[in-house]
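job 3f2a | input accepted
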Amino acid sequence: MAGKGTPATSLLVRRKVPFTTHPYQVDPAAPSYGLAAAAALGVEPGRVFKTLVATVDGRLAVGVVPVSGSLDLKALAAAVGGKRGAMAEPAAAERATGYVTGGISPLGQRTRLPIVLDATAPDWSTVFVSGGRRGLQIEITPGDLVDLTGATLAPLTAL
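job 3f2a | predicted structure (159 res):
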């Protein structure tokens, strides 16, 4: 699969948005894909964002938070106008996004889900998000990420 595009990279190319891909070797024994990606790339964990699919009042929504923290489900629910949030079943997340868990990108998802990006993203000139498969990160500006996904910004990280 190395060298092949993903829906995320295809979207970026099609929309002519500048980005950089960062492939890395996946450690299947790593307890956290995100922290392992940050370490493999030599990047500050607060700058690498994980994409998490949750259910909010029975509907899917996406939270994008730094790998150094965890998703505050109440904050995500509030950000999308709901009351209760829970992590989605992996199979439901994979069906809706078209990606496998551990490689879900906020870009190029099969189904357009509400996306909320943690408010810390604009603190960085560029951020890293999954490129659509394990072992591939995309470096992109937070502004382009918001524009392409229609994301809203909100504090989502529980440390």
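job 3f2a | Residues 21 and 138 are 5 Å apart (CA to CA).
job 3f2a | closed
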